[in-house]
UniProtKB/TrEMBL annotation:
The FAD-binding domain, residue ranges: 12-353
Reported cofactor(s): FAD
Designated name of the protein: FAD-dependent oxidoreductase
Family matches, as Pfam families: FAD_binding_3
Organism in which the protein naturally occurs: Mucilaginibacter ginsenosidivorans
Length: 523
């Protein structure tokens, strides 16, 4: 367990409440930038249950930047196929394959459970010389113009501690204590259906690396392959007959699962099981003065599409570099307002997106059941012969489509007809680098901005970055090539890439004080 040092009793830069995936990602990102922080959690350690299952391509790109993607690939599962059974008959056998080929270094569906994400991030945090204060909960807090003062309860030593921080990040989940103390509205709805989840070992004839889904008239269930052979995450909704029942055991719902999927199977072991209600809710603002809400503390929704954990990771990724700039004096506090500006629209879109999928798969009306029974097989047949549609779906589920194009931090000055714009994720391009074909993402790993110059001069454009900005920007010179031409780049182009690998500025020229003027936006 971590300890609060005398220095931390006097204060720290950031206090993070909650050491789930979102909190640990925020801590790891801040540690990359050298920011002083404290992270607390009432738990004894990382989450033992698997919980969230899927890691999106966009999250994998964060892990790639951190040097951790190979570990995720080694410890996770690559999902190759999707089968849909209706009334005991296989209606869909769909190859997921590398649906995102040409879009990312991670063109497939990756299963890597929440417990694995937490362990990986915690290990990385400790390598950075930081630790989590386990067995520690927040009991009260107070904000001022200078910072946040929190009262913490050490659950082991039975003592209270007071810590002062400049900012606070609430990553303490759907029942967030911070959100309640801030009196933030958390409006939305609760789904009528009861939802179950279990980690099991199953004996059946299904091939490995396959997701099996089965919607019926009254409920829905799905099976996701996990880290070990024959180990599956089973999840779904329960029929109406369970709505008013309490203390439901797995043995109670096992016959429901069997009848829903309609194929022979035997549950050999149940490692974890839970039943709960699903909610769809979002705060009105991701920031309240010096406190920021991230992950489930800010927004919750159905698990449709495997978006929840990934969205929390992206929240932390977006906020951390902005806090670093403010704390180092290279940006004013107005920069922190863009956290809400950039992340809130995505959260609102996500709530609608997951609600539609969940509603379609679980609605008990005859009309929707018939759509699932007859329309789903047809749609997947169309998908199987249309790589373009498959890529569009992959872009949505992987979160690589999202752009901060409307952000005040996104500035474009180019006269070229480009296929991308400021605010977009940096384009996925593979280049010849020292005799090896790699994506540009392998070059965007420093904990700073990157100025990518396409069509570099023979002198290397060394003077393109003003001396005052050298500590903030790493210059990358790349020669022009056909891959850039496909993106509409016909002459020299400068792309200023933010620390989260989204494009801050695009310009044909660096003269006229353009870089300095861009960074003055942060003041």
């Amino acid at each position: 367990m971590g300890t609060i040092t005398a220095n931390h009793q006097l204060g720290t830069d950031i206090i993070i409440v909650g050491a789930g995936p979102t909190g640990l990602m925020a801590a790891c990102q801040l540690a990359r930038f050298g920011v002083d922080l404290i992270i607390i959690d009432a738990k004894a350690g990382t989450t033992p249950e698997s919980r969230a299952m899927l890691v999106s391509a966009r999250s994998m790109e964060i892990y790639q930047q951190m040097g951790l993607s190979d570990k995720v690939l080694a410890q996770g599962e690559y999902i190759r196929n999707l089968s849909i059974y209706i009334d005991g008959k296989e209606k869909v056998d769909f190859s997921l394959g590398k649906a995102g080929a040409g879009l990312t270094d991670f063109p497939y569906i990756q299963s890597f459970e929440q417990s694995g994400n937490e362990s990986l991030l915690y290990e990385q945090l400790r390598k950075k010389g930081r630790d989590v204060l386990w067995h520690t909960e927040l009991v009260d807090m107070e904000q001022s113009a200078e910072g946040v003062t929190v009262k913490l309860q050490d659950l082991v030593a039975k003592r209270q501690l007071e810590v002062r921080a400049k900012y606070l990040i609430a990553c303490d989940g759907a029942s967030s204590t911070v959100r309640q103390l801030l009196k933030c509205k958390f409006e939305g709805k609760t789904y009528e259906n009861k939802f179950f989840v279990a980690d099991t070992r199953i004996d059946w004839a299904q091939p490995a690396h396959r997701v099996v889904a089965s919607p019926s008239r009254t409920n829905f269930c799905a099976f996701f392959p996990m880290y070990d052979k024959d180990t599956y995450r089973v999840l779904g909704t329960l029929p109406g007959s369970f709505y008013n029942k309490e203390n439901i055991a797995f043995q109670d719902i096992e016959p429901v699962i069997r009848s829903t999927v309609g194929i022979p199977l035997q549950f050999k072991v149940v490692n974890w099981f839970s039943v709960y209600k699903l909610h769809q809710r979002c705060v009105e603002s991701f920031a309240v003065n010096r406190c920021f809400l991230a992950g489930d503390a800010a927004h919750i929704h159905s698990p449709a599409g495997g978006q929840g954990m990934n969205t929390g990771l992206q929240d932390a990724y977006n906020l951390s570099w902005k806090l670093w700039m403010v704390l180092t004096g290279t940006a004013g506090e107005s920069l922190l307002c863009t956290y809400h500006t950039e992340r809130y629209p995505f959260a609102k879109w996500l709530l609608k997106f997951t609600d539609r999928i969940f509603g379609f798969m679980t609605d008990r009306q005859v009309f929707f059941y018939l759509l699932r029974k007859h329309l789903l097989p047809f749609l997947f047949k169309v998908l199987s012969i249309s790589p373009r549609i498959k890529k569009r779906i992959f872009r949505a589920l992987s979160q690589i489509w999202y752009s901060y194009g409307d952000s005040p931090l996104s500035v474009g000055h180019s006269e070229q007809s480009l296929t991308f714009k400021a605010g977009d994720r940096f384009p996925y391009v593979r280049i010849d680098h020292k005799g090896k074909m790699i994506s540009c993402y392998h070059l965007l790993t420093a904990a700073k901005f990157h100025l990518v110059c396409i069509g570099a001069d023979s002198n290397g454009n060394k003077d393109d970055v003003p001396a005052a900005l050298v500590p903030l920007i790493q210059l990358i010179n790349l020669p022009h090539s056909p891959c850039w031409l496909k993106l509409g780049i016909r002459k020299k182009l400068y792309i200023l890439v933010r620390p989260d690998n989204y494009i801050g500025m695009i310009t044909d020229r660096i003269d006229d004080d353009r870089l300095e003027r861009y960074f003055r936006l942060f003041r």
